[in-house]
Amino acid sequence: QVLFALNQTLLQHESLRAGSLQAPYTTEDLIKHYNCGDLNAVIFNHDTSQVPNFINTTLPPHEQVTAQEIDSYFRQELIYKRNERMGRRVMSLLRENRDRSFFFAFGAGHFLGNNTVIDVLRQAGFEVEHTPPGQPI
Description:
Layout: H1 2-18, H2 27-35, H3 61-96, H4 117-123
């Protein structure tokens, strides 16, 4: 699976470099949508937008199964579990220090797709508000 994932990642990068594959969004798109608090925009609707997409309909059936397994693994291990760990850390700080105020800042990856840090905190009963750029805190 590791060899398959590496080969698929390299093929995607070669296709991007050759111009036969378009990137779904640019760095500028990421920055603009992050600053606007619009991380549910079309470019971020795929849960694993941080992870190369290994699922490709041109792959033979046995490789499509491998691609799906890797995609599921990455989604669970690199996105969902990471956000759950981050959410638990935040909740622990808040619960252990009820008399203190906190400001938390996260990278854009913690807000992409489903099961974000915000989702984890809200599911635990916390109220979370987005502060847009330029708004006083």
